[in-house]
Amino acid sequence: PGMASWLVKAFFLRSHATQSLLRPNYVVSLPARYTMTEQPGVEERSIGNFTWKYVPCEVSTDNYLDRFRKTLLPIVRPTWNPNQLDHTVFDGGMSNFLAGIYEEDRAEDTVLIRIDRQDTEIFSNRDSEAIIMLTLNEAGLLPPLYCRLKNAMCYGFAKGRNLTVEEMQDKAMMERTTRALARLHAVKIPAPFRGQKPQVWANCDKWLELLPSEYSDPKKNESFRSTIGSVKVLHQELERLKMELSACQSQLIFCHNDTVHRNLIYNSDDDSVSLIDFEYSGPNFLSFDIGNHFCGFVGLDDMNY
Fold first, then answer.
1. How many whole angstroms separate alpha carbon 131 and alpha carbon 147?
2. Could you tell me where the beta strands, DSSP code E, fall in 135-281?
3. What backbone phi and psi angles, to 5 degrees, belong to 271?
């Protein structure tokens, strides 16, 4: 119950911290290198031994199809007919807008474009996510990353459908999910992340820095005080958790950190579950990834543990 209470508060922090204008402490500390490619307007960005394409333009929920046709198509699908494109909008979650683009009558070859919502950069570092996507693609666990934009990512489609909350608790589906987590946990932590503190502590420290002491909106302020109490209380609880849970000596490995139902994809062709959306991933305690997954059994609409 104590951990469940802490998780509720963590979600509260994540949903309220956008009131602050402070910027995040980036996960990747190595400097990025920039070089131009042969394609006009396309750069190569590198951190350590990881390199990806970067297109220095913005895209919106209103113009993403036109932007894809004019700017991204020559990069990711040069053989497609620009006049025969179709698209589907998916549920991108709290922090993103997600759409799939494909040639007419060829939805099996879909390219995803995920657009950041306002203040997403407070919670996610897209350079870090690019490194993770490249690592997992090389390990055969994720489709390719095609390119990054100023406020979006363009990457391959993981075939299948999202699990429902009820399916997460099905025994057979739990076994498939366990295998997917085991494959992920076997991946070595990427070099730029090694030596960093566990993601659970890094994120909580960052989110607490962003949390205001009070809100101008009386309803938000009352909700904050009745649910949390004060920022000081959160700091005290976090320090106690660090002391008590670090003593458990849980193994520090590469974790997903957000295995809710919509980040679990079931593919009926090979009867398997795979993981998507690695924006919160990084080094963390093995036990956190497992415990956090079980907390996801309550869903996202009414997190009543």
1. 12
2. 145-149, 152-156, 161-162, 252-255, 264-267, 272-275
3. 55, 50
SS (H, E, C) 214-245: CCCCHHHHHHHHHHCCCHHHHHHHHHHHHHHH
- Average pLDDT of the chain, as a whole number: 85
Between CA 144 and CA 134 the distance in angstroms is: 7
Spell out the residues 6+ positions from residue 26 whose beta carbon is closer than 8 angstroms to its own.
125, 127, 128
End-to-end CA, the chain? 8
Tally the C-alpha atoms within 13 A of residue 252's C-alpha that lie toward its C-beta.
Answer: 17
- Tell me, what's the pLDDT at 40? 52
One DSSP character per residue, 83-124 reads: TSEEEEEE---SSEEEEEEEETT-TTS-EEEEEE-TTGGGT-
pTM of the model: 0.81
Question: How far is the C-alpha of 150 from the C-alpha of 136, rounded, in Å?
Answer: 22
What is the tens place of the pLDDT at every residue in 191-205? 999 998 899 999 899
Beta carbons of 48 and 38 less than 8 angstroms apart = no
Q: Which of 229, 240, 256, 238 has the alpha carbon at shortest distance from 202?
A: 238
Location of structure tokens 């002491």: 213
Measured at the alpha carbon of residue 28, what is the angle toward residues 26 and 31, in degrees to the nearest 5? 105
Q: Which residues contact 146 (CB under 8 A, 6 or more apart)?
A: 53, 72, 75, 76, 111, 154, 155, 156
Average pLDDT (209-223) is: 88
Which structure tokens are listed for 250? Answer: 């849980």
Which tens digits make up the pLDDT trace of 23-72?
A: 333 344 444 554 444 455 799 999 999 999 999 999 999 999 999 999 99
Q: Which of 41, 35, 44, 57 is nearest to 115 (CA)?
A: 57
DSSP single-letter state for residue 301:
S
For the chain, how big is the Rg over CA atoms in Å? 20
